[in-house]
Amino acid sequence: MEDELEGIKESKRISMMHTGEHIFFKCLEKQIKGLKLEKIKLGEEESSLFVQADNLDWETIFKAEESANQIIRENRKVIIHETTKAGISGFPGLRIKPERIEGNNVRIVEIEGHDFSACSGKHCEATGEVKNILATKFRKSPAGYEIRFKVDAGKDMLEMARTARTAAEALGTEQEKVAATIRNLKEELESCKKAMKSQKIETKEDKMGGLHFIYAVFEGMDKKLLIDKGNELIKEKTVLCFLNKSEAMQVIVMCSADSGKDASMIIKELNEKIGGRGGGKNNFAMCAVEEKNAEKVLKAVKEIISE
């Protein structure tokens, strides 16, 4: 396979990473029917497999990772075979792209009892030299999925173990239940957001000269919900102001294009007037102010609009 070595000279670390790639991909291939390897990107610290698969999830990757580490613990031999294109049929399950091989000679790397792959790179002499394999991340990519991994990753494993233990303590659960607890919390959060979205948001409206001034005061409301509601309410010749009480008073200001007002300038003057931080654009701006009294904040906003 043709690997991208990121301009790094061949080194012991790359040999470990290269050998780890052969071990890990074959373990993934055994777990995922129809898995296809598109590209390999090798780095000294972290590498990536770019694959095509119908579906991929952490549980499948964990199974492949476990199998790969078992093969490493067994310290299997890494054997180099020299053959010809006519002789490749003697290597079952061989990973090869003949069109990339110049000439008739083929170099095959065998992970004893596990994998055959046509490869010209440098490798370890036995799987134990890889130490261990850790899958660090996977994500959708334009060609399918990218799976990132590390070898000799003892420090990373310890750090992840620390994170798991502190997360379990923070969540008040057992380590093996951390993921399930987080999923439950996310579901509860989404339910709360849906419930808040379905609530009727009551607003008031004043006429200020030729402008509609729409305003309301909330407590602990989701900021995105308020912004979405503001976009629904904004109309011709309108300035909208939502106050949201939390640790600091959040102020959201929106101005219609024909209002003649600039939301960023309203926020700027409000910051100067009562103390706060924030900014934005002419149609939308927001800040957090020190003033806790909503009536005082609204009065200040109205005074700025009236100027």
Write the SSE topology:
Blueprint: E1 3-4, H1 12-31, E2 36-41, E3 47-52, H2 58-73, E4 78-84, E5 105-111, E6 115-118, E7 133-141, E8 144-151, H3 154-171, H4 178-198, E9 204-208, E10 211-219, H5 223-233, E11 238-245, E12 249-255, H6 263-274, E13 276-280, E14 284-289, H7 294-306
Parallel strand pairs: 1-2, 10-11
Antiparallel strand pairs: 2-3, 3-8, 4-5, 5-6, 7-8, 9-10, 11-12, 12-14, 13-14
Q: Describe it for me?
A:
There is one protein chain. By secondary structure, the protein is of the alpha+beta class. It has two domains: 3-175, Threonyl-trna Synthetase, Chain A, domain 2 (Threonyl-tRNA Synthetase, Chain A, domain 2); 204-306, Diaminopimelate Epimerase, Chain A, domain 1, CATH 3.10.310. The chain is 36% helix and 29% strand. The protein has seven helices and 14 strands. A six-stranded mixed sheet has the order 9-10-11-12-14-13, with helices on both faces. A five-stranded mixed sheet has the order 1-2-3-8-7, with helices on both faces. The chain is elongated, with a radius of gyration of 30 Å. The termini are far apart.
Concise summary:
This protein is an alpha+beta fold. Helices cover 36% and strands 29% of the residues.
